# Entry
Amino acid sequence: MTVGVMGSAGGKLTADVRRRVRRLGVGIAKRGYVLITGACPGLPHEAVKGAKGAGGIVVGVSPALNFEEHVKKYHSPTRGYDAIIYTGSGLMGREIENIRSCDVVIFAGGRSGTLGEFAIAYDEAKVIGVLKSTGGITEHLGTIIDMVNKETGAFVCYDDDPERLLNQLEEIYRDRIFPRHVRIMKAGSGPDGRLQS
Amino acid sequence: MTVGVMGSAGGKLTADVRRRVRRLGVGIAKRGYVLITGACPGLPHEAVKGAKGAGGIVVGVSPALNFEEHVKKYHSPTRGYDAIIYTGSGLMGREIENIRSCDVVIFAGGRSGTLGEFAIAYDEAKVIGVLKSTGGITEHLGTIIDMVNKETGAFVCYDDDPERLLNQLEEIYRDRIFPRHVRIMKAGSGPDGRLQS
Amino acid sequence: MTVGVMGSAGGKLTADVRRRVRRLGVGIAKRGYVLITGACPGLPHEAVKGAKGAGGIVVGVSPALNFEEHVKKYHSPTRGYDAIIYTGSGLMGREIENIRSCDVVIFAGGRSGTLGEFAIAYDEAKVIGVLKSTGGITEHLGTIIDMVNKETGAFVCYDDDPERLLNQLEEIYRDRIFPRHVRIMKAGSGPDGRLQS
Amino acid sequence: MTVGVMGSAGGKLTADVRRRVRRLGVGIAKRGYVLITGACPGLPHEAVKGAKGAGGIVVGVSPALNFEEHVKKYHSPTRGYDAIIYTGSGLMGREIENIRSCDVVIFAGGRSGTLGEFAIAYDEAKVIGVLKSTGGITEHLGTIIDMVNKETGAFVCYDDDPERLLNQLEEIYRDRIFPRHVRIMKAGSGPDGRLQS
# Structure
C-alpha cells in the first residue's frame, strides 16, 4: 500500500501536531507501507522523518524541474527521500500526480493548497483519511463535503490518533482497493506485463 | 486578455444559468478576448457556443491524450474550438494548466471539480470572477475563503450579470495584470524573445 | 487542421531558411489552419510572424509555468500568439503536448531538441512534413528512420517548398486524418459532447 | 544515486541482452542505488527483476493515469515496484519525468521510443551510460551524436559489461554530479528545507 500525507507546508505548526504526524510516518513505515509526499517542508516532511527513522521507503513528488529548482526555488527538503520525482508541474500540478499515485491519502492541517488537494482527492474517488485536531482547513472538511453535495465514490474516515487512522485505512484498503486491484490484474497480462509489439 | 470559464460539466443546468454563461461567452468574444475552457461539456461549453457564435477565438485544454480519448472516453465537445490542447493529464490535471494559462478565471455553478479549480486559482493568486446565482459550490465560495484563512494574493469579484462581471475583470486586468506584464517585458528580451545558445 | 512547426530555436539561421519558414506560416494562415508552436524563438517564431501577419490564429505551448518564467527564464516571444498555454513542463516536456495537439507537424532545421521532437512524433504515428534544405538534424531524418527500423504508422513527406509541403500535408489530412476523426465522432456523443453524470 | 534504465519494451530480446540488463539491476541494488524505470515491460523490467531480487528499491514512472490503465491499457508490469507514479502523460510524456528524476540514465537496445528518450537525455545534459552490444538504436547513438552536432553538456560513456558501466557512471557521479549537488545545497535552505510563508 502506498500512503500519501498532505497538509501544511508552512504557517504555525504546533508541537502536538508535528508529533502526531511524525508518528503517522513511523506507523506507515512499521506496517511496511511506502510513504509518498509532495517533497515539501512542514507536516508532510514530519511524516518523512518518522518513516525514514523507522526504516521505511519514501518517495517525493516535487513541483520542481530538477534538484536545483527543488532546493533553490521551492526551498524543499532533500533528506529522507529514496527518490524524488521532478514533475516540473508547480505546487498544485504535482499534487495531482501525487494523489493519483497513492492508494490512500491522509490530510493534516493546511490551507488553500490542502483544500485543492482534498477537492482533487475527493473528486477522484480516493480513500481519504483525515487526522483530526490538526487545525486549518482540515477542521472544515465535513462542512465542505456537504457544500459540494456530490457522491463521487470517495471514502473519508477521521481520527485524531495516527495509529487508529491507519487501522481504518488498512481495513478499507483490504475491503475495497485490494480486491479491485486483484480483479483488474485478472483481466490484465500478469504481474510482469506483456511486451509491446 | 485570455479569459477562462470553469464550472459545471454536468448535473442540472437551468435555462437561466445557461443563458447567462452563453452571454458571458458572447461578451468575451465581442471585447476581443480569447476564451479558454477545459473543452468539457456543460457550462463552459455554453460559453464556447456564445463566444464562437460572436466570432471569437476559443482554445480548449483537454484531459485526453488525443482526439479519440477526448470524444470516446471523456464525451467532450469538439465544435467551436480553434485548437484543443491534449494534455493527457485527466480531469483535474488539465485544469492546472487551464488556470495557469488564463489571465482571469470565471466560475459558474459546479461541484467538487469546480471546488478544486477554485482552490487552485485562489492558491495561485489569480484574478477570479464569480458569476453569482449559478448554484452549486459557487454559492459557497465566500464561506470557503473565510475557512481557508490565507492571503494568497488572489483577487475575487462577484456579479450575477455577465457584462458587469467582465467590466470588473477588465478593470482589474488594466490596473493589476497588464502593468505587471509590462514590467516583466521590460526586464526580458523583447516581444520576439532571444535565440537560444 | 492544426499545424505544428518545430525546429531550431537557436544557432545560425540563414535568411533563406527564415524566409521559407515565414512563408510556411503565411500559407498555414491563408488556408485557414491554426498554427501551434512551442512559443519559442527561432524558426517556429518565424512561422508565427508569417501566420499572424496573414491574419491567422496562433497558439503557443510554453515550457514555462507562467508569463514571468516565459519571458525571463526562457527568453521566449510573446508577440503574435492568441493564447499561450503554460505547461510548466520544460523545454522537452511541453513538446509532447505540442506534438499531440497538432494534426500534422512540420520540421525545419534543428539539433538535439528537434531530434527528440521528431522521435516523439514518429513514435506517436503522426503525419510529419519535413521542410528540406533547412540544415541541422532535419537533413538526417531519412537516415535516422532507417536506423530506428520500426513501423510506427507515422507518415513522413518532404519538400523544400512551403506551399508544396502544405499541399502534400493537406492531401494526407483529407485522406487519412479527417476520415478517421469522422469515424471517431460517429462512435461518440456528438460535436457538443455529453454532460457528465 | 538514482539510476534510470531505458530501452526496448518490445521486439526481440535475446537471452544474452536480457541477462546483462538483469545483472545491471542487480548491480544497481547491491551498490545501494535506487532504480527508476518507465514501469514498462521488456529490458527495463529485466533490470527491475534483477534489482528487486537483490533487495533494491525500485520506482516506476507510468504512462497511465491509474492502476487500471497501467494494467489494461498499457499491459505494464506491477511486480517489483515499491511505488508507481501515475503521470497520465502517455508513453513518451512520462519519459521526460523519468529522465529528469534520474541522476544517471542507462540505455540498452530500443527503437524510436528509446531514440526520443536518448535525445531528451542528451538535450537535458544528463550523464548517460550506453550498454553496448544490445542491438537496436543503441548501436547508432555515436553516429546520431555526430549528426546532432551540439554540445549540450551531456556526458556519454559506453561499455558492454554492466558492472564496468556502473563503475564509470559512479565515478562521473562522484566527480561531477555530487559536488554540484553539494554546491546547490550550500546555497539552499538545508536538507529539511524551509517552511513556506
About this structure: Chain A has a mean pLDDT of 94. Chain A has seven helices and seven strands. The interface with chain C takes residues 65, 88-90, 93 of chain A (CB under 8 Å).
